[in-house]
Amino acid sequence: MNAPRATSLLCELTYRCNLQCPYCYNPLDLDSYRDELPTETWLRVVAEAAAMGILHIGLSGGEPTLRRDLPEIVAAASRAGLYTNLITQGTFLDDTRLDELLAAGLEHVQISIQAPTEALADQIAGTRVHANKELAIERVMRRNVALTLNCVLHRGNHDAIADVIAFAERHGIAKLELANVQFYGWAYRNRAALLPTRDQIDRALDVVAAARARLAGRMQIAYVLPDYFGDRPKACMNGWGRAFLTVTPDGRVLPCPAAAAIRTLHFERVQDRPLAEIWERSDAFVAYRGTAWMPEPCRSCDRREIDWGGCRCQAFLLTGDAGATDPVCTLSPEHERVIAALGVDGGAPLVPRRMKQPV
Amino acid sequence: MTATVVPRMSRGVRFRRDSDGSAMLLVPEGILRLNDSAAATLELVNGTRTLTAIVDALCARYAVTREDASRDVDDLIERLSRRGYVDR
Ligand SMILES: C[S@@+](CC[C@H](N)C(=O)[O-])C[C@H]1O[C@@H](n2cnc3c(N)ncnc32)[C@H](O)[C@@H]1O
Ligand code: SF4
Ligand code: SF4
Fold it and tell me: Which residue, of A21, A177, A259, B71, has the fewest CB within 10 Å?
C-alpha cells in the first residue's frame, strides 16, 4: 500500500538520564545508544521531516535537556513551522535554559513527576529530584508557555492519584496527564511489580470522575484505562507507519518508540537513507502498515481499521510474534498471557533503570 | 452562549492551513484535522473578535443562514473549550 502522510516525529535525542525510573519505557540496552547523532544530523532530520509534511515534533529521550544543542534543534524546527513539544523531567530547566528554549520558539512543555510528595517521588526516581522539579514547574508557570504535567501511574503510586491532582491544582496546572504505565522496556521488565490492581483502578476512576467534575473548565485530566484491563487494544500509534515516527539517539527510525525491542525487524538509520524513503519504503515500516499483514481474528474483524490490530511491540513482547493480534484483545488466541500477568502478585523487586543492565 | 464572548486559542494551540488547503489545529498531543466549516470559524478566532463578529464574518463570506452559523459556532467553541483548546 502507499504510505500515508507522516505527521508527527518523536526525536529521542539521548537516552542519558539522571533518574532511574523503574517504569521507564526506554530500551534495556541503553548502553548501546551512547553513540549519539551530532547536531548537524538532527538539524538535517528536522529539515527532512518538515519537507515530507511532518507538522509536530516531540523532543524526548532519555532526558533531552542533557543535550546542549537542544535550543538549536528547537529553533530549527520552529523556523520550519513545526509545532515543538519538549518532554522532560525538568531537573535541568533553570531560568537560563528555559528562556533559551522559549526564545527558540518552543510551544509546549511537558514535565513529569514521579509522585505528588517528595519522599515517594524520590524513592521512585532513585535520586533526590522532586523539590527541583517543583521549582521547574513554577518557573514554567511564570512564563507564557503551555505546560502539561505528567505522572506515570503504577502499583506504587496509583493510590496517590488524588494527591497528584491536588499537586496539579496547587500549581495552577491546566492539563494533567495521568498516564498508566505501559509495559515496554524497563517497565516490561518490572511488570510484575508495576501492574496496578483492579481495585486501584476502580478507585482511581472514581477519583478522576469527581475531580473532572469539580475542575471542569480549569483543568483537563487525561486518564486512560490501562490496556491490560480493557478488552480491546489501543490504536497504537494510530496504526503502524500511518502517522508517527521516532528517531532514536543513534539514528534508528522506528514506527513506535518501543519498536527497537522487535528483534525480528531491521530498522534503518537516518545516516544511511533519507527519512522520507525510510518512512515510505523501508521493510520495517512496510511490514505492518495497513491491514494486509493481519492474521485472524483481526483480518475479518470490523475494528481492523479502528485499532489496527493493536500494538506490534506488545504482540512481540507477549507472544514472540510482532505480527500477532495484540494479546490484550480478548479475541486474541493468546489473551491468556495477559490474564496470567494480571494474576501475578507484585512481590517482585523493582529494577531501577540504569545505563548498564544489571546481570 | 453570550454573543459578546471573545474566544481565543488556548496557549499551546495553533491553527494551521497547509499548502493543499487542509486545515488543522496543532495541539500538545498532536494534530486535530478540521473540516471546512470548523476551519472557516477558527480562522476567524483571533482573540479580539466576539462570537457575534465571527458569525457576521461567516455570513458575509458563505451562503449560510445566521441561525445555522450561530449554532455551529457555539457548538464548535463549546466542544473545543471543553477539551482545553479554546479559552473564552
Ligand atoms: C521516556 S520519558 C522521556 C522524557 C523525560 N525523561 C521524562 O521522563 O519526562 C517520556 C514520557 O513518557 C513517560 N513515561 C515513561 N515511561 C512510561 C511508561 N512505561 N508508560 C507510560 N509513560 C511513560 C514519562 O513520564 C514522560 O512523560
Ligand atoms: S522516564 Fe524516568 S528514567 Fe526514563 S528517561 Fe524519563 S526521567 Fe529518565
Ligand atoms: S481482533 Fe484485532 S482488529 Fe479486532 S478488536 Fe481485536 S485486535 Fe482489534
Answer: B71
